[in-house]
Specification:
This protein has 781 residues and is of the alpha/beta class. 57% of the residues lie in helices and 13% in strands.
Amino acid sequence: MSEEIPPSPRPSPIKGEGAQPPPSSLVGEGPGERGISPFESKVLAYFIAAGLVVAVLAGATWKQAQDATEAALHVSHTHEVLVSLARTRGDTVQIELSTQNHRLTGDPARLAERDAAMVSREAELARIRDLTADHPRQQARWKELRATADERLAIARKVTQLRQTEGEAAAAAYVATAPLRETQERIFGLLGEMQDEERRLLQARSAEQARARALALAAAMAAALALAVLLGATFVVIRRQLRANEAARRALLMSEAELRRLNESLDRANRTKSDFLASMSHELRTPLNAIIGFSEILRDGMAGDVSEQQREYLQDILSSGTHLLDLINDILDLSKVEAGKMTLELESLSVASLLKASLAIVREKAASHRLTLDLQVAADAGEVCADARKAKQIVYNLLSNAVKFTPDGGRVALSARRVPLADVPAGTGQPPGVLAYLEITVADSGIGISAEDRARLFSAFTQIDSSLSRQYEGTGLGLALVKRLAELHGGAVGVESEVGKGSTFRVWLPYRPAADCLAAARRHSGQATDVRGGRVLVVEDDAQAFEMLRLSLAQDGFTVTRAADAQEARAKLEAETPDLVTLDILLPGEDGWQFLDWMKRSAAYAHIPVVVVSIVAEQGKGFSLGASAVLQKPFLREDLSRALAELGFGAAGAAPRRILVIDDDPAAVEHAALLLEAEGHTVERACGGREGVAKALADPPDLVILDLMMPDLSGFEVVTVLRTDSRTALTPIVVVTGKSLSLEERAALNGHVLAVVAKSPFSPGAFLAEVRRALSVRGAK
């Protein structure tokens, strides 16, 4: 049994019976009932004095800064004079050498060298005259130097004239009598005197600059000392005044310390919770997958008839399971950052605006280091479908690193352009329908990176040299985040660098038309496939999960085959090619990601749509490897049906639609129209590609039936026009052609048409089945 501890016999800080009044110097009778207390007067006086000290310090600092700037300008001016004097000396030597060489050899090229040196010396002499205009002694020396140089120049021209008209002997004779040595010694002597004078000035001005800096430092230290004394005195006054409240303050501090300990405990508990949720999400979803899936199957009577009461019970189970799943999702959403969960919110972005906004963030820091920032956006960059915040974070992290590791006076260049798939590094995942990438490049003239350090450059919390963390500050997380965000978009990142010569970072993001953003998060369904029946290969090692999928798919009329691992799936693919593959990720042996990558690299199976159905639901990775849809377990049957509908599978809607048939053969147009009208649809006819495009853009239909081989405008060109126009960007297209398509032609259609139906042999039933699938896609969107 615990014993109650009585309160300590100290005055209560709470107003009430037995409470002691607060010191009168801190608490008065109220506004207007008293004047300023002595305590307040002292504190106010000290703060006014401190303000005056700060003002004096600011004025003195400004004056010293002006003096230092002026001294720096004088030093720079002196350096300019010295440089010009040195160049004048060099040009004079060049004139002498070229003149002598021409006299001896007669080579006209030497005259060109001499003339160029003369022009250069004239420019430098004029610059010296202007720079020393405020120095009488230097001006006097300059005038003498000018006259001596002209005299020397006249001698050189005379030597050249004699060499050209009378020969080398005459020129040599004139040289022997001309005052060459005297003029040369006068020129170099004058240059030496002027250089000595400028060096003396440089020494004096450098000393003045140092004195200005020392005075500024002394003034700052004196003001800081005075400010410290004032603040110390203020502290003493305040401390004395607050002694009367020490007991209450001590109690308050104890309470605050206790609150801090409680907050730290809560933070630790919160971190533990986040870690627990991240690691246990799979275990939580696995039983929920069976609960939700089988209760839905039982409720819908897919495993046998159930009574109305049983159906209600099953609905209660399903609702409770769904509610629990929603609750788990909400909790996981709160810990996404700690658990590393990230999703994309895709939208249409202007590439130029994205780069300009990112550049604006680092512009101030770059200016403080005198860095030059360049921006180039190719004309065809246009808009890209991406997560605006994460794309900006990618560009900013690269720019921030470039600015951080580039020495003062360097250059950072940011550019963007559209590149074909062939220019993207091998191994970059290609989402379906993407034939171009946006390449963002950040190049700098910084410190560079060695080859051995590049291997671990994109590891989290890593810097290539531990000393850099002290010099430049940073967590080493930026580049790792860039890599993860690029891969989340289905792209990649690369680097080229050499120590001491800067670095070039490139990021590739999948380039999709802006219209695809309307369904980008779940899209990737537009595979150009031939018509087949509803055969599904379910790659799933869990028997319960397979049975749930089998019942759901069988209810929609699919024929289902199971493979328990990747090896068995390969064998069944070789035995019979399915129309669809559902794929679990957590498989024994080879996992689902490896199997998906193998499928999409195989020419024989790359066209088959793959729906990832797994507890591991990494949409970015799935789409980058070529998945058409990603469903996370547990899911509702309607989620699966919706995903299949978006891929063109599932039941067709009964509502009649308006369909445009485009073919240059009137008989083929009429044949297709009769079949469609018999289904209750309204058919628009177009005998040729140009007429079809005009009708589609004037009044967009619900579906386009398109031939490829037309004389005026081919079907490939029609697809390009319709997909680039916002009015028809999402209109489903079914190709009906007698042409045998090559792999390149299929790649050109991939992601833009829903299916390809062969004209020969033509099956009306298969044709109408594809129309129903296409219209179901239209309805889903």
